[in-house]
Amino acid sequence: MIESPSGVLKARTLSLLSPLLLALVLALEASARPVSYVGGWTIIETSNRQSTAALVHYTATPKLSVGGRMEWDRNTGFVMTAVQPTWLAKRWFGQDFQANVYLTGGLGFATGIDGNAIGSDAAYFAGVMADWETRRHFLSYEARFLDAGHFGHDFMQAGHVGWAPYEGDTGDLHTWLMLEVDHRPDALESVGVTPMIRFFKNTLLVELGYNIIEHQPLANFTFRF
Amino acid sequence: MNIKRNFMALCLTVLACGAAADNHSGDSHAGHQHGDTHGASAMMDHGSHDEMRDHMHQHDEGEHDVATGEHEAHVTGAITLTRTPEIDAALAKGGEPIVADVLGVVCDFCATAMNKIFGKRAEVAAIYVDLDTKALSIVTHEQGSLSDEDIGSLAEQAGYRVAAVRRGAAALGS
User: Fold this and answer.
1) Domains of chain A and CATH, by start
2) What is the pLDDT along chain A (225 residues), one digit of tens a residue?
3) Measured between CB atoms, which of A94, A153, A174 is closest to B107?
């Protein structure tokens, strides 16, 4: 592929800036619900066996958040920068539970890094997330299809099950033991299993895990303000 | 391309299920409001909340079996104002105590959301979200007032739903 000088410059600039921006977000601190309270900001970082991503979003209405996403696909070697709206399609309330279905999507561009010869191309993705949660039990499912143009496309789905060994009250440190099973048809190992632990206090959520199939660490955080 | 098509079909199915469930959910909410609002007030200790929840469930079904002692208090009672130093200080200044039972409160993010949304209101002098009781305790400023509709609307902005509101003596359990 032949690239224009401006394309090369943009790719090099992004390849330099992307890790810095990701590091900046990581340094600010750590996700759960992709739609917050009206007027609230949320920083979400996720790092799994395939990619590292940061999302900063603003909740405009009780059912809609809009944010900027930067995702580094370490396997393919590109960084996607996109605008990501997320819509709370349905929330069920109960005395002791809450359940949600979210639809999300994104539109932006992908840029090659780490020696990837492909310069830049348009990218989009669409996804669905669902969760059910009590104070002691947690279930979730998510799926996403990403089309990154010349970089290829990617489908993934993942399920989580979690259990809290105790019920923490407001402001306490909440601890969850969780298991993630993810399915990535294009990965070397299509199914991954990741035991993890979640710590949750006030506006900060941190998840740490280790994929026992591919021997890769997992680190997620969410911070609201 | 098959993956794309299947995935879009899945998204549409989820949307359709969500829309269909909307009506059903609204009906059950109305049931909660009815069941909760006719309970009288009584002080209860923090450790009895699970029993309280069981009672509220019974209430919805119209099972008003009255036992003796503590259980009787639950049958005739409701969750009361959570006392914190800020709440007590606001009460001492003559503010109105309000307790709202909130559905879907399961984590600290829920508490934070309501603290942020309600805390912005000038009428609110003190607020506390109790995850154990799923109750929002508010004390207004002496001259301030929040209607039930205000409280419902603010809870919705935070992402939650109010099932019942108690005020004054009913909120204090006196």
Assistant:
1) 5-224 (2.40.160.40)
2) 344 455 555 555 555 555 444 443 433 333 457 888 999 999 999 998 889 999 999 999 999 999 999 999 988 899 999 999 999 999 998 888 999 999 999 999 999 987 777 789 999 999 999 999 998 999 999 999 999 999 999 999 999 999 999 998 888 899 999 999 999 998 889 999 999 999 988 889 999 999 999 898 999 999 988
3) A174
What's the rounded Cα separation, in Å, for the pair A143 and B71? 46
Q: Which of residues 31-50 of A touch B (CB under 8 A)?
A: 32-33, 35-40
Give the Cα separation of A132 and A195 in Å (integer).
19
Q: Which domains can be identified in chain B, with CATH numbers?
A: 2-76 (no CATH), 85-172 (3.30.70.100)
Q: CB count, 10 Å around CB of B146? A: 20
Dihedral in degrees, nearest 10, Cα atoms A91, A94, A97, A103: -10
Answer yes or no: are the C-beta atoms of A143 and A156 closer than 8 Å.
yes
ipTM of predicted complex: 0.74
Mutation target among A91, A135, A170 for the B interface, most CBs of B within 10 A: A170
CB contact under 8 A, B158 and A38: yes
Return the residue of B nearest to A96 by Cα. B104
Nearest C-alpha in A relative to B107: A135
